Amino acid sequence: MSANCSGPAGDCLDARQADGQQSGGSPCTSASVDKVDAKPNSHSFRYSLNYPSMGQCIIINNKNFDIKTGMNQRNGTDVDAGNVLKVFGILGYKVKVYNDQTVDQIKRVLMAASKEDHSGSASFICVLLSHGDEGVFFGTDTSVELKSLTSLFRGDRCKSLVGKPKLFFIQACRGTDLDGGIETDSGTDGSTTRLPVEADFLYAYSTAPGYYSWRNTMTGSWFIQSLCEMFSKYGKELELLHIMTRVNHKVAVEFESISNSPGFDAKKQIPCIVSMLTKEMYFTP
Question: Are the C-beta atoms of 132 and 98 separated by less than 8 Å?
């Protein structure tokens, strides 16, 4: 039995101190602390859209970078930004595009958005288009930890979005690995609820951890192309995670790199969806 559980039932921490011992304290009591007096079927498993607005959609679109960064121009990203603006505009979002933003500018834009009153909004969307690496996103001048941007909208920092979906779509590399692919055979009652501050987020990354993310200089990135096509087809019909599964399928199956650079030809990509959503997200009532 865990050292920090003093009885037969209760919630304990799966953590150890630096000395290898179980973390101290007494977060567990001798009786279960999980007591819920809720009426059966007193809540919905679907996010409410009963608000005046679907919410904001902020697009950070970085194409040109300071020469000191050594990063190349991201040709094709304007196509991505235009497609995203159109698709989420049709779904009822108030879309704003911010081009070629430094890290400080990105922080200011998202900080301002997090401090706004979202009480009349059903959700929030942020689309980040730039260079990247594992856990970081590039402004035009330097990099910033992604978590420092997304955490601005946590439940304890943005109260008017508590219990509402906060969706982040991130088109950026997450490393330098290349996926060579593998051949396969076809074949509501007025009560209150305490929520984790990290709840109701969805992070849709264009690629798996550690991998490059591909972009066509004429038609845009594989991920955003697929995202916009699937949202255009199914945004008013399917639930969000069902849509994202179709995005994953399209990127994985229909795209393969064509490159004259040694080692970069015939490569594949798979997006990565990380969901802390607590309900189903539809874009129409």
Answer: no
- In degrees and rounded to multiples of 5, residue 95 shows phi and psi of -95, 135
- 138 CB-near residues (< 8 Å, 6+ apart): 62, 65, 69, 71, 130, 131, 132, 144, 172
Residue range 78-98, pLDDT digits in tens: 999 999 999 999 999 999 999
Closest CA to 130 of 258, 227, 221, 229: 221
**What positions carry a catalytic annotation?**
131, 173
Q: How many helical (H) and strand (E) elements, i.e. helices and strands, does the chain have? A: 5, 13
Amino acid symbol at 115: K
CA dihedral 99, 102, 108, 110 (to 10 degrees): 60
Buried (b) or exposed (e) across 5-27, using 16+ Cβ within 10 A? beeeebebeeeeeeeeeeeeeee
Q: Quote the CA–CA distance of 240 and 167 in Å, as a whole number.
A: 10
Q: Note the pTM of the prediction, 2 decimals.
A: 0.86
Q: What burial letters (b/e) apply to 49-73, b meaning 16+ CB within 10 Å?
A: beeeebbbbbbbbbbebeeeeebee
pLDDT tens profile 228-270: 999 999 999 999 999 999 999 999 999 999 999 999 999 999 9
Q: How far is 170 from 247, CA to CA, in rounded Å?
A: 13
Q: What are phi and psi for residue 283, nearest 5 degrees?
A: -105, 0
